[in-house]
Amino acid sequence: MKGQEWYQATEVAEEYDEKRFSRGGRLIDRREKQAVLDALGRVEGDRVLEIACGTGRFTVMLAERGADITGLDISGPMLQEGRRKAKQAGVEDTIEFMRGDAARLPFPDDHFDTVFAMRFFHLADTPAKFLAEMARVSKNQVFFDTFKRFSTRSLYNWLLPMGSRLYGSREVEDLVDGASLQLVDSDHDFVVPYGFYREVPDWVAGPFRRADTAVGATPFGDALASVSYWDTRV
């Protein structure tokens, strides 16, 4: 995985949410959480696995909605932040945080109703292996996001110290087929790349996001979007 040493540093975990999801980044946080809720629907009583759960943004949110959820991540410090967040929310008894490798998931086949990953595949060095493992342990749904190759993300990618893996739609469809999954829905968003929103205050981010959404609603919106959300079934 790209940036693995950086990602596992304690100071990175402690500052992760503040750096990415404060200021204009709150718009990203809300949109990503809504994407997960829209795709997963009612989760009460469902057994859910989150791959690369990080600081538990989605893990805690779904636990609050009644999911029996496991959050897996390779970073111990990130998991510690997730446990702290779960305790603050009063759901620490309904979440299991585990350190592990997404390429070798420690679960039997068909163990979860839903498996999902956010902010994961842009760092994946072997995406086919990861997606196959997600499909193996799910008996119903696999949901994930990717960054698009032919978008403003390509320009922004040049500025990143470790870059990101970018995907064309055909490549994702081939990965889905290779994992014996069926694509049932896809959604595309953010003409302006994430990095811009993270760097500007709310009063700047808000108007840009409204313009971004307006462009996204046009016939050209999907083609210009930099982020894609993929909903598949086993």
TrEMBL record:
<keyword id="KW-0830">Ubiquinone</keyword>
<protein>
    <submittedName>
        <fullName>Ubiquinone/menaquinone biosynthesis C-methylase UbiE</fullName>
    </submittedName>
</protein>
<dbReference type="GO" id="GO:0008168">
    <property type="term" value="F:methyltransferase activity"/>
</dbReference>
<dbReference type="InterPro" id="IPR029063">
    <property type="entry name" value="SAM-dependent_MTases_sf"/>
</dbReference>
<dbReference type="InterPro" id="IPR041698">
    <property type="entry name" value="Methyltransf_25"/>
</dbReference>
<dbReference type="GO" id="GO:0032259">
    <property type="term" value="P:methylation"/>
</dbReference>
<feature type="domain" description="Methyltransferase">
    <location>
        <begin position="48"/>
        <end position="140"/>
    </location>
</feature>
<keyword id="KW-0808">Transferase</keyword>
<dbReference type="Pfam" id="PF13649">
    <property type="entry name" value="Methyltransf_25"/>
</dbReference>
<keyword id="KW-0489">Methyltransferase</keyword>
